Structures are given as structure tokens and as C-alpha cells.
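quick one, two chains, predict together pls
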Amino acid sequence: MSVPKYWRNIPQRYRLEAVKCIKCGKLFFPPRPVCNECRSQEFETVHLSDEGKIVTFTVLNSAPSKFSYQTPYPIAVIELSDSAKICAQITDCDIDKLYIGMPVKLQMRKLSTEGDAGIINYGYKAVPA
Amino acid sequence: MREVAIIGLGIHKWGEHWDRSLSDMFIDVALKAMADAEIDKIDSMCVGCMTSGLFVGQEHIAVQLADYLGIKHLPATRVETACASGALAFRTGLAEVMSGLSDIVLVGGVEKMTDVSVEDATFALSTAADQDYEGYHGITFPALCAMMARSHMNRYGSTSEQLASVAVKNHFNGALNPNAQYQSQITIENVMNSTIIADPLHMLDCSPITDGAAAVIICSMETARKISKKPIVKVTGWGHATDTLALHNREDFTTLKSTELAAQQAFKIAGIGPRDIDVAEIHDGFSIMEVIATEAIGFFEKGQGGFAAEQGRTALNGELPVNTSGGLKSRGHPAGATGVAQIVEIGYQLRGDAGKRQVQNARIGLTQNIGGIGGSSLIHIMEAV
């Protein structure tokens, strides 16, 4: 991944920065320029909650090249307590004991490495709360 | 708008073709479709291909394919909407004929997937997901569909065995299709005992990696009546809608909103409803997706798709045969070619040329092709004239 591409997403990956439509209140993560409910272009920046629960999940046994050494790993859609939904891996857990509705908390983790130098890509992962 | 007819069909045996290039396969089916229509001249060409760049390192393929087809200076367009690129090429061709921009159009789809490793193919396909907010976290398409399957099971009580019955049915049909990648029947036990790719989906719930191409010739109804010597298939309905790119931005993970909307548009234009369809080709990239699609189109109530498959209602001898070709599961899934192959199958069915898998008295057929997990959906309805 190019440095500028990585750098552009730091506010979301490190700080969970989202936007809230000033007109209708809808929350968007990642931020977007036009609200898909009311078409407003006016937003305020908000920080998402780091607590939520699992909406749905799976455990991958087959992965893209960059993640193949991590299999099996669980991934889930998580609904945060402020109603935003995100996709994240679940870690430090027993993969046989995951369930829909399970409370989780987001933490900053290493997600993958790339290139000969093993440059580390960071971001959020969920752990059992 | 002018009425549009399908007058030529071309497909080849799909599979792992290490001895054939992307253009070899495409030119093969293009020439077959032209021979089937008994024409030697086309006005334009539309090609659907998901990612020739990642699979074979070649972009600008509309030019390459027109060049190799041997028709100098032919207007040629390549379109992309992931795994629905084939249906989008068909829609693009329709627009050309309807508007009068072109009279006879070659519509083709192609994907050459086995020149790269399975890991690299998995990555190439995963680029249809949200790369920054799904791909970055290690998501794959099987994983996204597995999460939809888990939601569907949790809400409606669908079972792994019901999903397996979709794969079993499609392999049964594929065994009757000489152009299918897999021509072997499988059992529920085979599916349930196959490796888990992304829980709850097994390997035999998933469509394979395939090399393949398909093509059709379309033209104005007026021209078809003059030149076609075969039964004419008329295009009577069309729909196209999008949804959020990322799964997590959707409100409901148990349906395909874009398919619902595209189907509603197509039925309205055709002036018919789901119960009028005699045969359908549905995008079963994963078994759960056929279940969800048959609900979203309106063939079955929400939550009933799995039960319907298990009861044989979508089997070749059922009330609504789905994926008589073998579907993506058994015919194979060369991403950009699938949408066109679906049209080819419905064409054969409506002409009465489907051989051992012929649905008796098939008069009206429907195709549903999706990009990603339904980020895009295209529906087409065709009728025998």
C-alpha cells in the first residue's frame, strides 16, 4: 500500500473518526461527502464508541495472500453503541464461543504486514468485552 | 425505443484452460454466436470483464478483442461491475440497439482466472469489496456471504443442509450440460463433509475459479424478423440497481435490496410478475446467494428460499427450475462471463435447444446477475416469440 493511501485513512483507523449529518443526524463511517438519506453535504466530525456487539460473523479458513498465515481467523460486523456498524477481525477469543449479540470492545492492533521489509499495517480489531 | 431480439448464442466448455488465452476463448464464442445467427457483420461490440488487469495483466481488452476478431475499426466497449460485468455488457448492448445507435451488436463476457495462484485469485475477486474498510481487515467474498448466511439462519431458521441442497441441485443440472466445468453429481453429505471455507459455508457451497467466455448477438426486432432463421427470443424486461459497497453499511444482511429493486423494474417493464417465469438463471456464487435471490426476486416469501430449494421446488422438474445450466456452482464462474452465459442458457431454453436439461414449454425466462455481494444487480427477462 502506498504511504499516501495509508496516511489518508489514519483518522478512521487510529481514531474511529466518523461524520454525522447535521440535517438528519445519520452517522457515516467512513466519512462521505453526501448524506444518502437527505442529500445534505453538511457534517460534523464525531468519534465512534469503541464498544459494541457482534451482529454477524464468520471464521475464515481461506484468505487472501496477505492474510493467509493468520488462518483461521474470525471476522465480524459489529454494531457500536452509537449505532454505527463496522467490519473488523475478532482476536484474543475462543473461536468456538463467538455468538450473535456478543459484547466486544475495539482495540488498536497490527492487522497485516507487507513488502520485503514487513511494513506493519495497523487498525482496529475487536476483543471480547 | 426499439424492441430487441437475441438471434445468436455462443458458449464453450468452461474449466481450467491452461492452453487458451483470454482472447482465444472470447474469439471462439464470438465466432460461434455469429455462426449461430448466420451473420458475418456486426455494428458494435460490448464486452464484460471484471479484472483482466489483475488476472492476466492486460487492460484495454475491448480493443484487443475487436482486433483479434478481425473486424477492423469496430466500435468496442468494455464495461465492469465486478461479477455482474456480463449482464452490464448486455444492458449496454440493449441500450445501443434500443436507441438506434447500432442495429446488430455482439455482447460478450470473459474472464481468464487460472493464470494466477488461488491466493491471488481470491485477492483479485476481493477487490469487488470495499478495499479500505473490508479488504484491509482480511475479508473475502466467501466470508461476506458466510456472514449473510449466518444472519439468514439466525432470523429464519435456514440450515446448512438447505444451502447444500442448492449445490446438489445445481450439480445435478450441470451434469446434463456439456459446457459445464463440473459434470458430476454430488450429495448433501459431500457438501457437509467438504472443507469449511468460511463458517457456515463449505467448499461445495462456493462457485469455483474458472476460465471461460460467452457471447450473444442482439439486434432490433425488425432486423431479426428479416434475417433470423431460428426461433427469435425477445428481450422484454430489464432492471439495474446498486446498493452500498460494504456489507456493514446495509440495514438488512438477509436480503439483496439491489436485486429486489432491479426485479421490480424488470417485471414492471415486461408487464408480468414472478409467477409468470418458467425458468431462471440465478447468481449462485455461493449457495446462500441463490436462496436470498429467489426471495428478493419474489419467487418465494422472505425466509422461504432455503425450504423451497430443499423441497425441490427449484429443481429441473420443480415448479420453477432455477439454474438449469448448473449455475455458477457447476457451470463455473469466470466472473465477467457469467452474466452473458446466463442469457445464453435462457436463450437455449426458450428456443427449445437445451437438450437433456430442457424445461418443457419454457416461454418466459429470467436472469439475475450480481456484482460483489449485490453492490450491483441486473435482471433481464426474455420471452420466446
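The radius of gyration of chain B is 19 Å.
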